[in-house]
Write a structure and sequence with these properties.
Blueprint: E1 12-15, E2 20-23, H1 31-40, E3 43-45, H2 51-56, E4 60-61, H3 63-67
Parallel strand pairs: 2-4
Antiparallel strand pairs: 1-2, 1-3
Length: 74
Amino acid sequence: MERPTRFEEHRYVGDKRTQVVYDLDAADVDADIIAELMKAETFLCFGPDTLPEARNRGYRLWKGHAEGHQTADA
């Protein structure tokens, strides 16, 4: 997936509505999910741009990355 313009230098982007973080480098990320997130303007990037930092802020990795699910439900 091509990274959104605002996230060219970032790997992880979080959704403030669901507290879910997406790995933009993962092959299974649905571009429609990211496009909707950008349109809603409810995104967040992390500094440093790491999964442990996202978890430190209370975000959890989108389950599609680990288990192949297409939802962000816990």
